[in-house]
Amino acid sequence: xxxxxxxPDLDAATLRSWARAIDDGPFSSLCWGExxxxxxxxxxxxxxxxxxxxxxxxxxxxxxxxQLHDPVxxxxxxxxxxxxxxxxxTVGFGIGGRHExxxxxxxDTMTQSIAGMAxxxxxxxxxxxGEKVTESVLPVxxxxxxxxxxxLLVGTIGAKTVRRAAAWADGLAGTTMDLDVAKQGELFDxxxxxxxxxxxxxxxxxxxxxxxxxxxxxxxxxxxxxxxxYMNWIPAEFVEAVAPKTGxxxxxxxLAAVLREFAAIGTDEIHLIPTSADLDQLRRxxxxxxxxx
Length: 293
Prior knowledge:
Blueprint: H1 12-24, E1 29-32, H2 43-53, E2 58-64, H3 71-84, E3 89-93, H4 99-104, H5 114-128, E4 152-154, H6 159-165, E5 171-173, H7 181-197, E6 204-213, H8 216-230, H9 236-242, E7 248-250, H10 252-264, E8 269-274, H11 279-292
Parallel strand pairs: 1-2, 2-3, 3-4, 4-5, 5-6, 6-7, 6-8
Domain Luciferase-like: 12-266
Protein name: Luciferase
GO biological process, one term: alkanesulfonate catabolic process
C-alpha cells in the first residue's frame, strides 16, 4: 500500500494514521513516491518518521530519483533509514519524468538517463560497502542494517532500462497505467531473462496502479480528480483524455479479481496507489487483501 503523499492538505496525524494502519494490516510493504516541485512531503525526511511509526511492514521508496540528490548524502540518509527501521528498507530508484524537479534543485537535466542513474547508484553502493569516497578519517556512515545496503528496485516501464538495471538492481518496481496484464507479463519476462543472463537470482517483480473503491461512476471520478492534480505538468485536456482508462475503479470483488490476474503472471507484489487520503479506502482494501490470503 502506498501512502497518500500526493493528496492535498496532509498533516502529521493523517500520515501517522495511514502508516500505522498499513503496518497493522495484511500488507507486505508501505510505499511512497518522490516529487520536488509539488507539496508532497520530502521522501527522505518521511522515511525517518515511517521507520518510527511502523514495526513490521517493509518500507519501499517508489521511487527516489538519485540525480536529484547528492549521492553521498542520499546514501547516508537511506542507510540511516535502514538502521532506524531495523533493516526494513527497500529502495526504488528511477530516472523521473519531470524536468521541473531537476530544475528545482539545480540538477542537470542531461543526467536524466539510465547512465546518470547508474552512476549515482554505484557511488551509493560504495558508501554502503564502507569505502571511503574521499580522503577522510572515517568512511561515510552509519552502515546500513544489511551488509552492502538495502535491496534496490528499478522503477521503470521500459525494457531497455530493465535490461541495463540488471547489473545493479534486485528487482523491478514498475507501474501500469491501463492495467494491461499481458503487457506487464512481457516486461516481467524481460526482467527474468536479464537477471538470468547477469547470473543473478530471480528478480523481485512488482508493479503498481492507482485505485479507487466505490460505486463505478464515483470511483472513476475520484481517480480522474487525482490524476488532474498529480499530472499537473501535462495539459489538462490530455489528462482528461486518458483518465477514463487510467488506474482502476470499482468494488471489492472486482479488485480481488484484478489482483488474482496479476498474481497469475508471477507478480511478487502490487504497490497500490490511493487516490484519496480517506482511511476507509485503506481499510476496505485491507479486507480484500486479507480475504485473498
